[in-house]
Design brief:
Neuraminidase, 1% helix, 5-stranded antiparallel sheet, 1 helix
Length: 416
């Protein structure tokens, strides 16, 4: 294999693309590094003109790269993080065990969007939104599907290039709060489903499926087919009946929906035909005693059969918010684990709790101090199974919707 030519470009901040022309099709491996750090490696499939995306670049650093097995080497300097994003991050202690952390940040007069932190807590990737960052998914091709309240769903490659887009439709299908990748690599998302009841508009919820490659849209499920206003009144609702705020795929390919106004998590069977169970709230198949109950919850996930982790805002209880895990067995739900920040943080809305593969939990409190009674600050913890914090991030931002662990940005891996 012989390199005929090479070009290094900058498709987006903190990203470089290396385009190479070879004398014959061949697999290509590129290693790149900055002094004092581990080497990163990207492998490209066989091609005579491979294009390799170099990601996870720390800001304002000198980098070196080498195409393994050739004499091609080079150097470049990475980009600076914009001042409004840099101002959002105040302090960190400890070290998170997830390779990367994606923050969903919203500052009305500053940075709005998604920002990825590496193990040094440096921003190594970001995407600006026009409006509130309302949840993200990761497809099997490695692309991010980012919800932008004002723009819609945007599928973005690790190189920052938009691959597909589904525009927001406020008049007919206003998407909000979450999107997840299905096991068939389509995207499920939440959208309001408006109906007129007794002369007044009531906002129900629907789950839609989007196929980015074809643009196909399919309404898979709606609250109106499975619940009634009379049987399930909402304690905090006005014209929004359920206010769904999270989606997740469960271990049976069931679909979990968090119904904020019902203080309830609903599991839908994989064929979309039946409500499998209802955790907490009215008419629950898994009722909860007052001391164990959640309210205004976010990011419910069934992490293994019969085990649900969520962020309990405590919107009706007040006083504190927490991450909590329930075990569901034989019609009974029990608290398996819970964690509260010290000092106590009460975030009446927003927030997330994500269980990591190593058993740790990443917990985000997303409301600045003083807003709607929040104690603040906007902060993220990673805690171990015993509840001991191993990492703590404090931000300076109006809202932080979620903090989510990620394994990579693109195809990069750390050289052993």
């Amino acid at each position: 294999m012989r390199v005929l030519s090479a070009e290094l470009t900058t498709p987006a901040p903190l990203v470089r693309t290396l385009r190479v022309a070879l004398d014959r099709p061949a697999e290509l491996t590129v290693e790149y590094w900055t002094d004092g750090d581990s080497r990163l490696r990207v492998q490209a499939p066989a091609s005579a003109s491979p294009s390799i995306t170099l990601t996870r670049l720390r800001p304002r650093r000198s980098y070196h790269f080498q195409v393994v097995g050739t004499t091609l080497t080079g150097d470049f300097t990475s980009d600076t993080v914009p001042t409004d994003l840099a101002a959002s991050l105040v302090s960190t202690t400890g070290r998170h065990t997830a390779p990367l952390v994606m923050l969903h940040l919203f500052e009305p007069t500053g940075f709005k969007g998604y920002a990825m932190l590496d193990e040094h807590d440096d921003v190594v990737w970001y995407w600006r939104t026009t409006d509130f960052p309302f949840g993200m998914a990761r497809r099997t091709n490695g692309n991010f599907v980012l919800m932008d309240k004002g723009r819609g769903l945007v599928e973005v490659g690790p190189d920052g290039v938009v691959a597909h887009e589904l525009p927001q439709d406020f008049a007919n299908r206003e998407m909000h709060h979450d999107a997840v990748a299905s096991r068939s690599n389509t995207v499920f998302f939440i959208a309001f489903d408006d109906r007129t009841v007794n002369g007044a508009k009531v906002r129900g919820e629907a789950i839609w499926e989007w196929s980015p490659e074809t643009g196909a849209l399919d309404k898979r499920w709606t609250t109106w087919d499975h619940f009634s206003l009379a049987a399930t009144p909402a304690p905090r609702a006005d014209r929004e009946w359920a206010h769904a705020n999270a989606l997740a795929i469960g271990p049976r390919n069931n679909v979990l929906v968090s119904m904020h106004h019902w203080n309830q998590v609903v599991s839908i069977t994989s064929d979309w035909s039946t409500i499998e169970w209802r955790l907490g709230g009215m008419n629950a198949t898994y009722p909860l005693p007052a001391a164990d109950a959640f309210s205004g919850q976010h990011t419910a996930r069934e992490i293994s059969p019969g085990h649900v982790v969520l962020f309990d805002n405590g919107a009706e209880r007040g006083g504190f918010s927490r991450a909590i895990e329930y075990s569901l067995d034989g019609g009974t739900a029990r608290v398996q684990w819970e964690w509260r920040a010290q000092p106590i943080n009460f975030a009446p809305f927003l927030g997330s709790a994500r269980r990591l593969a190593n058993g740790n939990t990443m917990i985000a409190f997303g409301v600045m101090a003083g807003l709607s009674g929040s104690s603040g600050p906007t902060e993220v913890y990673e805690v171990d199974a015993a509840g001991t914090p191993v990492w703590h991030l404090v931000t300076r931002t109006f809202n932080m919707y979620r903090a989510e662990p990620q394994t990579s940005i693109g195809a990069e891996s750390v050289v052993p």
